[in-house]
């Protein structure tokens, strides 16, 4: 770890725009070394678990395995250029998977953000003693691992096993959680149940930082609880909302466990390449085509980057307008 | 808030989010392979999902000083094979694994198996019937050593067949008539369930009807997933499902078992190996089940539903020891007996080796089936298996294509999707497709 050798650089850096507030960079050499010591582990880990795998994925995405004849003479690796990318993009299954998650996000994100925001505002305005209880109770589902939660919900969705369906049946009704029309809602419900409490806690924490005098002022001015919530509290936690939307988007486009399990339980419209991650999983582990899997992963990652950029951009504009 | 800090924050958030995204999809697992040092016994890692594996390994380790086998249970089906293939790629594959016949060509042509011709070629040639040898020999090489034959068998509830006044169906026509009768007598009960999620069962039924999903034509693969016989089978089951004469529970699911255990499903389409699992999944119904030959299309015929063999995975440094263990598993009396003696999950697989078949038959407790000689029946069914079936080089992918499309629009469409996928997969990998 070579510390910067030219002493003059230290003073110039003050004027560099990205260097943060003045003062922090006015460090002595010893302090710089200490800072480097703290920072280096991050970059080592970052290189090992992030940069190297991405590089490897890029490398893998440029090759394919070829066999000949009946295939029992073994396989060989051949350079494929961008063939794996065009192969994934020309696959209707891969393209459809993006339509599927777009639909899913269109339902899931409003439900999730709206729901957790509403819950946070309710908890925030509840009695002091009830607050802790609701906070914990609503967060509890998130403590259950996603896979287990999926299995439990799928049990509740399955005809012949589900007490919920038995109950609906005993009132003469019927509902098919797996049917083409309902399965998306079943999936949204499952994911929302797992994550709503988590996002609610983030919003609730942000609400605690809203100065009480602002709220008192609003009350004095005659704003009701509802109006205070919508026009005072929500704008004041805009940053938390944007961040949560961002994380929810990035999580939603990677959805895997829920459609995988719904597919295994025979939901007709959830096929084995329903979401991009399922497509990637199948390409890599069922079709043994690591090249296409790597190419598709990188394209999904790119979508994640673009989406994150857009959400942040739009979010900032919204925050500025408040 | 200044412009700079805002855009900096934005960049940072974007970077963090993107990185979080990329942090997924990397999974690895499994134990590393032990390397034997001098004087110490060789340790073999063995991955399987078959019944009776634990007691088999214990028996082997008791009687062998120079080889120690370490057994790990893995999932069956697609998940299990993915795990194995990934382990080979990652260089931490077990030495020995169970490879079903349907996966042998795929695993061999992907370069996941060690050619066993030199080590076990002779054993396979001399100890197993020709029809079984054909399932593990490709390109003139022996890839795995067979364990069992898996003739289809029909299991039914004797008490409930009596209650509803049905005879055991001998043909598929009779099966349909019986299904209609059951539905008429009780609208909540069905004769059987036909899972849309188990393409291996569909394959067995197509095999029975004379279909051939794959064949080898010189140096080229010739897929026939939607051939005439398979179409007949697909149309038949689509019809039964459309008329609501059979249930369509997800294969191997709790609701399927529950319907069987509670008498909502009166019979099921299984194979020789099904009997072992029934004892553990439906212990209360002991004495109420019997087995019969699978209904047929007019003349006695059958297919293999499953069936397992053992292979040595690429990367193993102990091929010789691994072959010794495999040979013991498949052709040694003690190996076969141990598998059936497992207290928690006894196997009822029918050994492909005729001598071992007698050993297994003698050991199998027929109490559950009221003394019916299941092994005798299964042995007879082996002779009825239609010869000439070959599994494909991208079988798993074909299976998922069939499964996806069947779930959406029925078996007839499913096998079309399967055929397309078979052709596409063969061409994409650079293999030869027969014209």
Question: Any key phrases for this structure?
Answer:
heterodimer, A: 322 residues, mainly alpha, MetI-like fold, 14 helices, B: alpha+beta, D-Maltodextrin-Binding Protein, domain 2, 3-stranded antiparallel beta sheet
Explain what the structure shows:
The complex is a heterodimer of chains A (322) and B (435). In chain A, helix 4 (92-125) packs antiparallel against helix 11 and helix 9 (212-220) packs antiparallel against helix 10 (225-236). Chain A contains 14 helices and two strands. Chain A has 322 residues and is mainly α. Chain B starts with a helix and ends in a 7-residue tail after the last helix. Chain B has two domains: 42-150 and 306-331, 3-Layer(aba) Sandwich (D-Maltodextrin-Binding Protein, domain 2); 152-304 and 389-428, D-Maltodextrin-Binding Protein, domain 2 (3-Layer(aba) Sandwich). Chain B has a five-stranded mixed beta sheet, sandwiched between helices. At the A-B interface, helix 2, helix 11, helix 13 and helix 14 of A face helix 1, helix 3, helix 4, helix 11 and helix 17 of B.
């Amino acid at each position: 770890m070579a510390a910067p050798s030219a002493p003059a650089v230290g003073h110039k850096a003050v004027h560099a725009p990205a260097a943060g507030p003045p003062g922090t960079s006015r460090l002595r050499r010893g302090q710089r070394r200490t800072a480097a010591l703290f920072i280096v582990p991050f970059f080592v880990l970052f290189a090992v678990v992030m940069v190297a795998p991405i590089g490897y994925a890029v490398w893998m995405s440029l090759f394919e395995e070829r066999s000949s004849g009946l295939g029992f003479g073994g396989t060989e690796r051949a350079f494929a250029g961008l063939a794996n990318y065009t192969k994934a993009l020309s696959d209707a299954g891969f393209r459809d998977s993006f339509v599927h998650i777009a639909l899913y996000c269109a339902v899931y994100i409003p439900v999730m953000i709206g729901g957790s925001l509403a819950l946070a505002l309710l908890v925030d305005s509840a009695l002091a003693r009830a607050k802790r209880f609701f906070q914990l109770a609503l967060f509890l589902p998130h403590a259950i691992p996603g896979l287990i939660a999926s299995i439990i919900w799928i049990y509740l969705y399955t005809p012949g096993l589900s007490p919920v369906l038995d109950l609906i049946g005993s009132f003469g009704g019927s509902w098919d959680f797996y049917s083409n029309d309902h399965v998306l809602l079943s999936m949204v419900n499952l994911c929302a149940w797992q994550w709503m409490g988590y996002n609610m806690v983030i919003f609730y924490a942000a609400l605690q930082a809203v100065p009480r005098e602002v709220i008192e002022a609003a009350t004095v001015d005659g704003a009701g609880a509802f109006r205070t919530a919508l026009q005072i509290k929500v704008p004041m936690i805009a940053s938390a909302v944007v961040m949560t939307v961002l994380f929810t988007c990035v999580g939603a486009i990677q959805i895997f466990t829920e459609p995988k399990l719904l597919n295994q339980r025979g939901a007709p419209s959830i096929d084995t390449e329903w979401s991009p991650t399922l497509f990637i999983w199948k390409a890599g582990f069922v079709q043994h085509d690591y090249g296409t899997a790597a190419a598709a992963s990188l394209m999904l990652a790119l979508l994640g980057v673009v989406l994150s950029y857009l959400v942040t951009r739009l979010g900032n504009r919204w925050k500025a307008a408040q | 808030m200044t412009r700079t800090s805002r855009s900096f924050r934005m960049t940072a958030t974007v970077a963090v989010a993107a990185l979080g995204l990329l942090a997924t999809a990397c999974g690895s697992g499994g134990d590393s392979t032990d390397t034997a040092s001098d004087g110490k016994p060789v340790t073999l890692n063995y991955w399987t999902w078959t019944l009776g594996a634990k007691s088999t390994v214990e028996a082997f380790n008791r009687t062998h000083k120079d080889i120690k086998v370490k057994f790990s249970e893995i999932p069956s089906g697609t998940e299990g094979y993915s795990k194995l293939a990934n382990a080979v790629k990652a260089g931490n594959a077990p030495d020995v694994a169970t490879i079903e016949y349907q996966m042998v060509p795929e695993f061999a042509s992907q370069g996941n198996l060690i050619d066993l011709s030199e080590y076990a070629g002779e054993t396979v040639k001399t100890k197993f019937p020709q029809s079984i040898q054909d399932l593990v020999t490709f390109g003139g090489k022996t890839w795995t050593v067979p364990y069992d034959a898996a003739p289809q068998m029909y299991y039914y509830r004797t008490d409930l067949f009596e209650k509803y006044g049905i005879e055991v169906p001998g043909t598929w026509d009779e099966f349909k008539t019986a299904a209609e009768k059951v539905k008429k007598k009780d609208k909540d009960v069905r004769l059987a369930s036909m899972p849309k999620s188990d393409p291996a069962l569909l394959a067995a039924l197509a095999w029975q009807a004379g279909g051939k999903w794959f064949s080898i034509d010189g140096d080229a693969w010739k897929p026939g997933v939607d051939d005439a016989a398979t179409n007949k089978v697909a149309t038949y089951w689509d019809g039964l499902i459309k008329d609501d004469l059979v249930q369509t529970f997800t294969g191997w699911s709790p609701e399927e078992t529950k319907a069987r255990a509670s008498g909502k499903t009166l019979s099921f389409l299984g194979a020789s190996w099904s009997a072992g699992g029934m004892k553990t999944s439906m212990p209360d119904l002991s004495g109420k089940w019997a087995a019969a030959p699978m209904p047929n299309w007019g003349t006695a015929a059958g297919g293999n539903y499953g069936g397992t063999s053992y292979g040595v995975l690429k990367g193993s440094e102990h091929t010789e020891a691994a072959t010794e263990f495999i040979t013991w598993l498949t052709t040694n009396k003690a190996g076969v007996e141990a598998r059936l003696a497992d207290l928690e999950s006894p196997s009822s697989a029918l050994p492909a080796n005729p001598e071992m078949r007698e050993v297994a038959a003698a050991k199998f407790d027929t109490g559950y089936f009221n003394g019916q000689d299941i092994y005798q029946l299964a042995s007879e069914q082996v002779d009825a298996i239609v010869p000439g079936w070959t599994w494909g080089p991208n079988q798993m992918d074909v299976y998922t294509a069939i499964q996806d499309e069947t779930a959406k629009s029925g078996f007839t469409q499913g096998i079309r999707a399967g055929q397309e996928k078979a052709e596409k997969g063969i061409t994409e990998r650079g293999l030869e497709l027969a014209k």
